[in-house]
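in:
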């Protein structure tokens, strides 16, 4: 009976040791899947807000159908450019977040990190300004004036 108990406990222990990493990987995979689902849900909300902001801008400025199509094309082009830099910027934000969570903030580490990404940050800012410029070129003088008056309120129609 002791041999049977010993054999059974050894088998259970071996099974537990083998299954433990597999269980851990399964739990990690579920956590990653949950995070991805939350991120996708957030991006869906963000896309919905952008559509609402566009509709608000189009209505407020009384954009023609042709102008609406052109503005949508500009936004689509900007979105494609922004997607190409998403992974790099996500890594940058993660590194900044880890610096903020440290007990003592390391100024030099942040400056070094910022210098590494300086060109990409400048390119993103340039792309955003070019997008706004392209949209402004589509507007009539009255629409531009109306937009400038509105920009004092809220965060503007597009920011």
């Amino acid at each position: 009976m002791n041999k049977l108990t010993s054999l059974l406990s050894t088998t259970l222990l071996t099974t537990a040791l083998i299954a433990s990493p597999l269980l851990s990987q399964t739990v990690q995979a579920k956590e990653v899947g949950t995070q991805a689902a939350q991120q996708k849900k957030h991006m869906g909300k963000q896309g919905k807000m952008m559509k609402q902001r566009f509709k608000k801008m189009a209505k407020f400025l009384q954009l023609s159908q042709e102008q609406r199509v052109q503005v949508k094309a500009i936004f689509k082009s900007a979105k494609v450019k922004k997607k190409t830099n998403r992974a790099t910027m996500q890594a940058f934000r993660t590194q900044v977040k880890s610096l903020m969570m440290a007990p003592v903030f390391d100024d030099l580490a942040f400056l070094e990190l910022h210098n590494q990404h300086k060109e990409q940050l400048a390119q993103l800012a340039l792309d955003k300004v070019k997008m706004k410029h392209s949209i402004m070129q589509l507007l009539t003088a009255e629409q531009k004036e109306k937009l400038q008056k509105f920009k004092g309120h809220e965060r503007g129609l597009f920011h």
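note: Residues 62-159 form a domain with the Four Helix Bundle (Hemerythrin (Met), subunit A) fold (CATH 1.20.120).
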